[in-house]
Amino acid sequence: MFKATILNIKTHQNLFEIQLSSELGELYMLSLELDKHIQNGKEVMLGFKSSDLILSARRPDISSRNCFLAKVQSVEKGELISVINLKANDFKFDTMISSNLIHKIKDELYVILSETSLYISEIL
């Protein structure tokens, strides 16, 4: 979990697009529901499932707005799945990849996070 500030909320046909500022940079979240206490300027705690992250050695040219650079802290190699421990600014997190892709891991990786993978865990 990490702290973020809500910058802007757009809504259309029961779909909410939330623009946030965080230590990972500017992030965007899509949600079907939104608590009435969530408003511009509010601080919230955000979370995501570690298995929802996509890693890339190069800056990807794709249709995701949530892309940031992270440093690899360590790799825990498993038989089938390996855990990659990452750090972006002061935020530490991990993700899993297939162990047969471990050779593609560099010192720094771009992390792509889907807008539908982010969730608000707490309103501060």
From TrEMBL:
Protein name: Molybdenum-pterin binding domain-containing protein
Alphabetical list of InterPro entries matching this protein: Mo/tungstate-bd_C_term_dom
Phylogenetic placement of the source organism: Bacteria, Pseudomonadati, Campylobacterota, Epsilonproteobacteria, Campylobacterales
